[in-house]
Amino acid sequence: MIYKTPVITVDGPGGAGKGTLSYLLAKQLGWHLLDSGALYRVLAYSAELHGVALDNEAGLEVLAAHLDVQFIPDLHIPFCHVILEGENVSYAVRSEKCGNNASKVAAFPAVRTALLGRQRAFCEMPGLVADGRDMGSVVFYDAPLKIFLTASAEERAKRRYNELKAKGFDVSLRELLEEIRTRDERDANRPVSPLVPAHDAIMVDSTSMSIDQVLSLVISEAKNRALI
Ligand code: DC
Fold it and tell me: Which domains are seen in the chain, by residue range?
């Protein structure tokens, strides 16, 4: 056992609603929240800042090991504030460009290993909701409740479009759909920690479900397991 605290893992492709679900779960349960995607995003951002090429695995590994980053939870908004080297980069790391770069750096085994301890350190009482791609399959492989949340690529592109528009980003739905497909392909086919459901994960297709329906499904699964 690598932890004693209850953990709910929420994995799945980008835009499936993992972020919103994880945020609402953590808020309702009063648990900690790990947004592991933000960690890969901030690494990609830091690489650009420090002139480390996105294909330089050894350089990225060093950067990952020394990343001076803090995640400040704010339960009034559905994401953490991300402070890199004292600077608030919360907005910058949410761009599509940063998400794509994150997917590239995340494909390197050395990078993933360098970030493992940092992710596990989020696991503190009274509980943790861990949002990512390999939370249930690798990082918290022993978690008592694992959710794999999906939705069709078209539905995910539409959600991402609305979300980014609301944040003031200028985006095109067609380009987002293409990017989502490319990113899915890269995340699912990398040799380490690919985006695959853990063997004991509960599969939830949210294409025609509201976020409230998904949330109550997960809460009832948590109750069934006596986690809450
Ligand atoms: O969830 P997100 O869009 O913020 O993640 C950005 C990228 O980071 C995603 O394309 C793949 C990578 N990632 C990963 O490889 N493993 C994780 N646990 C989380 C994210």
Answer: 7-222 (3.40.50.300)
